[in-house]
Amino acid sequence: MLTKRIVPCLDIKNGRTVKGVNFVDLRDAGDPVVLAKQYADQGADELVFLDIAATLENRGTTLDMVVRVAEQVNIPFTVGGGISSVEHVDALLKNGADKVSINSSAVKRPELVNELADKFGSQCVVVAIDAKEIDAEWFVHLAGGTIPTDIKLFEWAKEVEKRGAGEILFTSMNHDGTKNGFANKSLAKLSEMLNIPIIASGGAGNVQHFVDTFKEGKSDAALAASVFHFGEIPIPKLKKELKKHNIEVRL
């Protein structure tokens, strides 16, 4: 049985970790470098770092912060935010990132997924999809959830898999920050449709939500932010509880 992964997410704005609800009302959650080290020490399996203002501000991810975080962690480290070229990814990988996460740039120019997979290997390419359920249909949103599109979640996920994505990071905008649980029905559908790992994001509020997304949502990894940032769920305790539910995790 494949080990399920616990992935803290650092949303970065102006050099600080922030967290909101439904992608708005951001509040400060601490120093990203300090948090990154803390999570690596606590037994997180991977770390995701998203420069959430990069696309809106029309710039690339801040390399300096990537270097500083990479120096503190010994676990796989995914970086996203404003990534739009092979050259940019090359710089990130050379400065400590293990994988990159692309979102808006992939929608605007889908060939980017092919280019990155061809150059660096699919294992490096995570396609993040922020989607909102509207009238029982999931629609992809861009630029930190601020720009709606008419692109449908499941069709887009299938396309990026064909183009060479190694993983999908699906964030439900409806669930983000609500602490009411993950979008497990849609996660399970993605998992059944695709042959690449699915990372669940949006809605973690308690240990049971993680159990549910691994069992009902068939997720390969669960990403969360505020429950870790504000000490509500310590990672070692979460992993012990998952073990009790016969979910295979790395302790």
Describe the structure.
This protein has one domain (5-244): TIM Barrel. Helices cover 35% and strands 28% of the residues. It is built from ten helices and twelve strands. The protein has helices at residues 32-42, 63-72, 86-94, 104-108, 111-120, 153-163, 184-193, 207-215, 226-229, 235-244, and strands at 5-13, 16-21, 24-30, 47-51, 77-80, 99-102, 125-134, 137-142, 147-152, 167-172, 198-201, 221-224. It has an eight-stranded parallel barrel, surrounded by six helices. Helix 1 (32-42) runs parallel beside helix 2 (63-72). The longest helix has 11 residues, at 32-42. It is globular and about 45 Å long. The two termini are 15 Å apart. The model is unreliable at 21-25 (pLDDT under 50).
Which helices and strands, and how do they pair?
Elements (H helix, E strand, L loop, with lengths): L4 E9 L2 E6 L2 E7 L1 H11 L4 E5 L11 H10 L4 E4 L5 H9 L4 E4 L1 H5 L2 H10 L4 E10 L2 E6 L4 E6 H11 L3 E6 L11 H10 L4 E4 L5 H9 L5 E4 L1 H4 L5 H10 L7
Parallel strand pairs: 1-4, 1-12, 4-5, 5-6, 6-7, 7-10, 10-11, 11-12
Antiparallel strand pairs: 1-2, 2-3, 7-8, 8-9
